[in-house]
Write a structure and sequence with these properties.
Layout: H1 14-20, E1 31-38, E2 43-50, H2 58-64, E3 68-76, E4 79-84, E5 93-97, E6 100-105, E7 108-113, E8 116-125
Antiparallel strand pairs: 1-2, 2-3, 3-8, 4-7, 5-6, 6-7
Amino acid sequence: MADHDWSAAVADPRRLREVLGAPPPPLSDFSLVSLHIDERDATVALEFHALAIPTGAVGLWLARGHNAVEFSLLCTGVEDLAIDGWSTEPIESVTVDKASVVLVGPGRKVSFEAGEIHAEGPVGRYFGAP
């Protein structure tokens, strides 16, 4: 069975699909590097990163020396935010299905409904050898 196209939940997924592919790889192929909850604006920002060059950017990004991709999902109009536990362990899965977003990791679960989801990026980066 094919993975669910999470980009269908994004208000304008064209740029994501141009760079990452259509449909893009599952979110499990990316590391969630930042989760920012802003209760004043009812927003949740999720920042993703992967040490990989997306199919839609191979030529350009190789020429520029990029070896990684970053993008963010900005969820606005957030309602029904629920946080069940918190830890420093990495999030193991992020599911975006229509307006529902669920993040799960050891000892925690974060879930909410978003009025809209907007993409920022993707952008190429270079991360040197460790």
